[in-house]
Every structure is written in structure tokens, then in C-alpha cells.
Amino acid sequence: MADVTLKQIAEIAGVSAATVSYVLSGKRKVSKATELRVLSVAKQLNYSPNLFAQQLKRGESFLIFALLNTYSSSFNGEALQKIEHSFEEKGYRLLAMTGGLDDIIRTNIFDGGIILNYHTTKQEIQTLEESTGKPLILLSNQSNQKNTASVIMDNFGGMKLVLAEFAKSEHQNICFIQGPEGSYNNTSRAESARYFYKELFQRDDFDIRLYRGNFVSDESYKLAFHLLKNKLYNAFVCFNDSTALGVYKAAYELGIQVGKDISVAGFDNTSYSEFVSPALTTVDVDKDLWAKEVVKNYLALKDRSIETNEVKIPASLIKRGSIKYKSI
Q1: Cα torsion 295, 298, 302, 308: sign
Q2: Nearest one of 51, 36, 44, 165 to 97, comparing CA atoms
Q3: Is 65 strand, coil or helix?
Q4: Coiled-coil ranges per the record (predicted)?
Q5: For site-directed labelling of 17, which of 31, 59, 189, 322 has its Cα 20 to 30 A away?
Q6: What is the pTM (predicted TM-score) of this model?
Q7: Could you read off the pLDDT of 199-244 as tens digits, one per residue?
Q8: In the chain, what percentage of residues exceed pLDDT 70?
Q9: Chain-centre distance for alpha carbon 154
Q10: List of domains in the chain
Q11: How far out from the chain centre does Cα 12 lie?
Q12: Which band of pLDDT confidence, cut at 50, 70 and 90, is reported for residue 1?
């Protein structure tokens, strides 16, 4: 439809013509929801007098969706920023979404996508790939489905580093605070913790030491307050940094000093972990390397040079002041 105007797109999308212009030219940032709505309308109307439509006619939009469970996660935000930059270097735009898989299948404007910390089953991944035929990169799941690649953190190696530190700690009455059910990272970290706890501490009581904080600071705070008040544990292995933040808050309110009275470690090395007091010992992953591997594997899938792949990004331990060690 050659006579479609920006004004017509704007009316259907419920935005101004200027906003439509910003979205189609990429010259100014608008909200992700607005961007998606405008691009979807433009495609439906077959808007043509610009590069965007020329790309769509060739079957390319240079848009990549990033599906995540929440925008509020510090780790999600930091990882996405790195990934977005790496995609932009290759001429792609990243659009973060928290909607369901049906939204992606229905709009059908993306060249491919990444799934980060979003609970999906293998069947859902298969359905998404078969419905779109586009490359998928999984950052928190494993799959050998064709046209997919998993670029994941080495949770096994990371948990080994954490528990090796607690083996040297003065505090060895350990509590494990895990994330939500259905989370790949949580399951992987729990299995790894179980293995290394038995190997390093020669104990079989892991299950009674495992609690659920759902990767949320508030829930972890309430749990930790109860555990600390009743003096049940003096060491806390937290399956992400938000969980550790909840333990810190509970300890502070009870007059307990982290790194002296109790030991705490986190996972993910989020930006705030070095600014709490004492700074949090936590597992890190090179987010720049992770982002580059995401884009590298996406392009390899797109070019059909690989059909499927799995890459594990090595973990390292950032040692700070939240673990009290045995006196030598």
C-alpha cells in the first residue's frame, strides 16, 4: 500500500506521527511497548517508503526480541545492556518484552530472539521455533532443538567456587536459599550445591538446609530474619545477589554483622554487590563475553553454519568481605 502515511500508522497505533517517525528511523528512543506497536502496524499496512519496509520485503526487520520474566531484575538489566550493544554493532535492534510467547508468534516481525530468565518448557521452545522458523538463543535453558543455541552460565563451576570458600570459613552451619521452581538457573545451582556440599563437607543433610527465597529480596529477608533470630544457621549460600541483599537486611535489623557473626555469598555479581557493607562475595560471569557469544551464535544459526549449539560461559569468584575465614 504505497499511499500509507505516517499519520495513518499513528492513528491505528494510538501515537503521534512524530513518534512513528522516531520509531521507523531509529533516531530517538521510545518505550519498548510503543516501538513494538508501531512496527507491528507498519508491517500490517505494508508501509514502504523507507529502509524499514525494504528490509521487511526482503524478509528481514533486523529486530531481535529479548523475552524476560521481569524488568526489575538488576542482573537482567545489566546483561541486556551488554547484549543490546553487541547486537547494535552488527546492525540489529533489541526489543525487550515480558509478554508471552503467543505475542511473539502473533506479531511475527522479528528476525530472531533471545530468552533470558523466562520460564519456558522444551515444548514451548520447540513450538516457538517451528512457528517462526527464526533463530533462538537461550540464556537460561538448555535445548538441542534445531535452530537454537544455549549460551549459559557455568552454574556448576560457580557453585564449586562458592562452597570451596565456605569450606575455609569459620562459619560452616550452612543454609542454602534457592530461587523459584521452574527456573533453569535455580535447578542447576541447587543440583550443583547438593553435589559439592556432600563432596566438601561429607554430609547428607542438604535437603533440610535448603529454603526458598524465589530470587526476591523481600521474601529472602523474611526468611532470613526467622532463621537468624532463631540462630539456626551462621552461613548463607544465596542463589542470587538479591537473595543475599535480603539476608543483609535481616542481619542489620537483628544487630548481626555480616563477615563477622555470619558469612554470606551471592551469585551473579550485580552492580550493587560491591556497594553493600561489607562488600558481597559473589559468583561472576564475564557479561561482555556472554554478549559476544550470544550474537556470534545468533549469526551462526542465521547463516546455517550451525544447527544447534551449547556454550558455557566460565564462572569466577569475586572475593570481598562477606565471608569470615578460619584463623591460620
Answers
A1: positive
A2: 36
A3: strand
A4: none
A5: 59
A6: 0.80
A7: 999 999 999 999 999 999 999 999 999 999 999 999 999 999 999 9
A8: 90
A9: 14
A10: 1-61 (1.10.260.40), 155-284 (3.40.50.2300)
A11: 33
A12: very low
